[in-house]
Amino acid sequence: MRIFDFLNVLGFLTVFCAIMVFVDWFIRRYRTGHTEERKFSLLVEYARAFFPVFLIVLVIRSFVFQPFRVPSGSLEPTVMPGDLIFVTQYNYGLKVPIWDTTVIPVGKPKRGQIALFRWPVNQKMTFVKRVIGLPGDHISYVNKVFTINGRVETQKLVGDFQEDLGAGRTQPVKEYIENLDGIKHYIIRNPNIPAQNFKDLVVPKGMYMMIGDNRDNSDDSRDWGFVPQEYYIGRALFVWFNIQFAPFSIKWNRIGTKLFGSL
Amino acid sequence: MNSSARTWLGIIASIIVIGLMIWSMPLYFITPKGVVLPADGDKPAYTGPVNIYDQLDVPFSAETIGVINMRYHTLSSSLATQETLVNKAKEIAAAAGANGIVASIGSTYPNTPTGLRVMVLSGKVVRTSDSHN
Question: What is the pTM of this model?
C-alpha cells in the first residue's frame, strides 16, 4: 500500500508545476525565434503561479509544523475533542515527503512527550498519544498506576472531572496529576472500569509504547502494541484552536494550552 | 515550437517523473498488530502449536500468562481474514510463552470511519500442562 495523504499529493503537485515551468523555460531558452513561441499556455501560466505557493506550503508542512485536529477524547483532559494542535515536524528528524525518509536525524521520542505518529495497524491514519515506554523499558500497570523500570509513576487525586464523550454527552470520572519521570500532567480514570493489570512488559528495541491520558477510554499500545521509531512524525506543542460540529461549539479557553513540559 | 507543443511535452515529462516517484514510494503492509500484556513478567517462548479455546473447553489447569489484544485493519470479515488474525495471535502468544488462546473476535464496523475499521481479537493467553486439538 502506498500512502497518498495531503503532504504526498502536495509534493506531486509541486513537482508537476516545477516540471511544467522548467520544460517550457528550457525549450524557449534554447529555441529562440518567433514571438508566438513566447506565449504560455493556460496550464503553464497556472503552473508558474501556483509553483511558489505549493513549494512554500510543502516546505513548511514537511519540515516546520502542521496543524492536526484531534477527533477523540483519548488524551483528555490534556487534549480535548475538537482541539486543533500545533505539531512540529522536526523533533524526530527531518523527513523527505513522498519517500518518508529521515534525511537529518534530530532526536528520538522521549517519555512524557505527546507525539504524532502513523498508526501501526493502518499506516494511512495518524494518532496522537503520550510516550510512556522507551526501547528496553520494563513497564508494569497495576491498579491503574504505571511502574517503569522499578520506579512508580505516582498519581495525586485532583477531583471530579466530566469526560467529554462527544455529541454533547459527558460522564463523571476522576482527575489525577501523574508524575511521569518529573513531567507532571493530568490524567483521568473511570472508577467504574476495572484495571487491565500487567506486569513487566518489555518494550522491544527500536519501539515505543504510547498511552492516552484518558486511561480507561484510550485505544493505544495496550490494544495494538508498540510503535516503531520510523513511524513518528512530530511532537505536539500547543492547542491553537478548538471546534466541534455535533453539536457546534468553540472552546475559546483552549487556545494557547501548552502540551509540553510539566504543570 | 508553439506553447501547446511545449505544454504537452511538459505533461509527458511530468507523467514520467511522477510515475517514477510513485513507483519508488515506500510500501506499507497491513498486517495484524497486537500485544500480550503479561500477568507476571516474561516467560520463555513456546515452540509448539498454540491452541484456540473458548471459555467452556479451556483446560482447568491452564495458567494465565497474560491478556492478548490484537487489531487488524480490514474491510472484510471473511473467514480468511479471521484466520490471518488468529495466526498472528498464535505467533504472539507463543512468543509470550503461551500454548493456548481464549479469546473472542469482533469488529468495529459498520459505525467506524473506513480508516479505523478493524477486526478485534481480545482475550487471554494461557499455558496448559497438556495440549489438545
Answer: 0.89
